[in-house]
Structures are given as C-alpha cells and as structure tokens.
Design brief:
Length: about 180
C-alpha cells in the first residue's frame, strides 16, 4: 500500500503543478493520450516527480519484478520490463474523488481475485483513489457481492472506474488501465 501511495503522491504533485502552470503535459493519466504505464511513469521521471530507481522499487513486489530503464535523451525515455505489481487507471481531472487511480495488479474491477494472480494471488488487494485515500481489501470484497450487492456501497468503498456512471458496475478494467510492461 505504501508503494501505491508513493506513486499516487508523485502523480498528484505532477497533476497539481500542471493545473497551476496550465501545462497539459503534467496531468492525471487520463488527461492526455498516454496508453502505457511506461509512458505515464516516464513523465513522472522526466519531470523529477520520481527517480527511476524509486519507480523500480514502487512497481515491484515479491513475485513481480518490474525493471525500469531510463535514458536521459533528449528525448528522455522510460521503458519497463517484467511484471508490475501496480496498475494505473486512466483517471482524469474531471473524475470524482472516488475514481480509482491505482490498484495492485491482481485486482480487476468487480471481478473475483484469482488464486494464480501474480503478485498477491487472491489474498487481498490495494486500491488508491483520486482523493489520495488508500485501503487494503480482502478477497471477498473484490466484487459487488462482497458488499451485499449494494452498488453504492461498492463504489464508495472500492471506488469508481474513470468516466463511470454512479450505480453502473462493469466487470473488468476494460480500456481504463494503462498497459503494463507485459
């Protein structure tokens, strides 16, 4: 959870600076056409919100080693190889504070956890929302069924997908997640 929060704080600082400076390149991951985790993380490293070595530590966990390669450039580039322990959602400035910013990579929105997911299997998952609050959840809380089939409670506790309508609970991340290194 600490790694997910650290990634969030870097993203928050970048998006806040971008808003203050009217710089569209410094934004939440869904506010510009980033499609990959490497592209988004590249912006964090290139603009000194994170160091490449810190990013490698943040994206790795037991069973999921994500290697970060940084080339100073110009242009500076970041490439990711291996498996990331975290995934980042294409959340935008316009999304509510309950929108999910990042989650452990074993979590797929409103889908039961898999016992073979790497890392963390079905032991539980972590979610960080746009508001900055983060929580750890048990495997039975991964779907609406774990919240008494109450969509409002599921969305208030777990969060919403970027651009989702309140009360609408799709299963799966769809195109709302930045593509990981695998």
């Amino acid at each position: 959870m600490n790694n997910a929060r650290e990634l969030y704080l870097a993203g928050f600082h970048m998006a806040t600076d971008g808003a203050a400076k009217s710089d569209a390149n410094l934004a939440w991951p869904g506010d510009y056409p980033a499609t990959s985790l490497a592209e988004y993380c590249g912006k964090l490293v290139q603009n000194d919100y994170l160091k490449a070595t810190d990013l490698q530590r943040i994206l790795s966990a037991p069973g999921a080693t994500c290697t970060v390669n940084f080339t100073a450039g110009p242009p500076a580039t970041v490439t990711l190889t291996g498996r990331s322990a975290l995934k980042v959602y294409k959340m935008k400035t316009a999304d509510p504070s309950s929108a999910i910013f990042a989650a452990s990579s074993n979590y797929i929105y409103n889908t039961p956890l898999s016992p073979t997911a790497v890392p963390f299997s079905d032991k539980g998952f972590v979610v960080v929302r746009k508001s900055g609050d983060a929580d750890m959840y048990e495997k039975n809380q991964a779907t609406i069924a774990g919240w008494g089939n109450n969509a409002a409670e599921f969305q208030s506790k777990i969060g919403t997908l970027a651009g989702a309508v309140d009360g609408t609970l799709p299963s799966g991340d769809g195109v709302m997640v930045l593509a990981g290194p695998e």
